[in-house]
From TrEMBL:
<feature type="binding site">
    <location>
        <position position="79"/>
    </location>
    <ligand>
        <name>substrate</name>
    </ligand>
</feature>
<keyword id="KW-0028">Amino-acid biosynthesis</keyword>
<dbReference type="GO" id="GO:0009073">
    <property type="term" value="P:aromatic amino acid family biosynthetic process"/>
</dbReference>
<feature type="binding site">
    <location>
        <position position="73"/>
    </location>
    <ligand>
        <name>substrate</name>
    </ligand>
</feature>
<feature type="active site" description="Proton acceptor">
    <location>
        <position position="22"/>
    </location>
</feature>
<protein>
    <recommendedName>
        <fullName>3-dehydroquinate dehydratase</fullName>
        <ecNumber>4.2.1.10</ecNumber>
    </recommendedName>
</protein>
<dbReference type="InterPro" id="IPR018509">
    <property type="entry name" value="DHquinase_II_CS"/>
</dbReference>
<dbReference type="GO" id="GO:0009423">
    <property type="term" value="P:chorismate biosynthetic process"/>
</dbReference>
<dbReference type="GO" id="GO:0003855">
    <property type="term" value="F:3-dehydroquinate dehydratase activity"/>
</dbReference>
<feature type="site" description="Transition state stabilizer">
    <location>
        <position position="17"/>
    </location>
</feature>
<feature type="binding site">
    <location>
        <position position="110"/>
    </location>
    <ligand>
        <name>substrate</name>
    </ligand>
</feature>
<dbReference type="GO" id="GO:0008652">
    <property type="term" value="P:amino acid biosynthetic process"/>
</dbReference>
<feature type="binding site">
    <location>
        <begin position="100"/>
        <end position="101"/>
    </location>
    <ligand>
        <name>substrate</name>
    </ligand>
</feature>
<keyword id="KW-0456">Lyase</keyword>
<dbReference type="Pfam" id="PF01220">
    <property type="entry name" value="DHquinase_II"/>
</dbReference>
<dbReference type="InterPro" id="IPR036441">
    <property type="entry name" value="DHquinase_II_sf"/>
</dbReference>
<comment type="subunit">
    <text>Homododecamer.</text>
</comment>
Length: 142
């Protein structure tokens, strides 16, 4: 089954966006890293990015209907979106929440996530490598 790898607002700007925090690797690098890792693990994946909350929710509904596992970096919506949290709550598959930066070393408003209570696992502060770790976990934990 296809794993959904969903990315929220501003992640399309990786590479130029605050590189001191998010690193110099681009969104395209992130997509390629996920595809390479998925190939190695024998996983089918679908990688998406949107700046729109409604689009992220629609993809979560698609994943729910498919019974698919999800790797989700909801970016800024992590800290604001009850609606994305609600969509995560109804996922029958596994949910791994990923953050590139260590949000707990940053501003207080980044310490709360509306998603974490619904996540099976959370990977924070490992850079874009966190996506690789999330996919590896999903593949190895079956
Ligand atoms: C982020 C952390 C969020 O606080 C921030 O709004 C982002 C990216 C991360 O991957 O580190 O856009 O989710």
């Amino acid at each position: 089954m296809t794993v959904f790898v969903l990315n929220g607002p501003n992640l399309n700007r990786l590479g130029t966006r605050e590189p001191d925090i998010y690193g110099s690797r681009t969104y395209q690098d992130l997509v390629e890293l996920c595809e390479r890792e998925a190939g190695r693990l024998g996983l089918s994946i679908r990688v998406e990015q949107s700046n729109a909350e409604s689009q992220l929710i629609d993809w979560l509904h698609e994943a729910a209907d498919a019974g698919a596992d999800v790797v989700l970096n909801a970016a800024g919506y992590t800290h604001t979106s009850v609606a994305i949290g609600d969509a995560c709550a109804s996922l029958p598959g596994r949910l791994i929440e990923v953050h590139i930066s260590n949000v707990h070393r940053r501003e207080a408003f980044r310490h709360h996530s509306y998603l974490s209570a619904h996540a099976d696992g959370i990977i924070i502060g490992c850079g874009i490598d966190g996506y690789r770790l999330a996919l590896e976990h999903l593949a190895l934990a079956g």
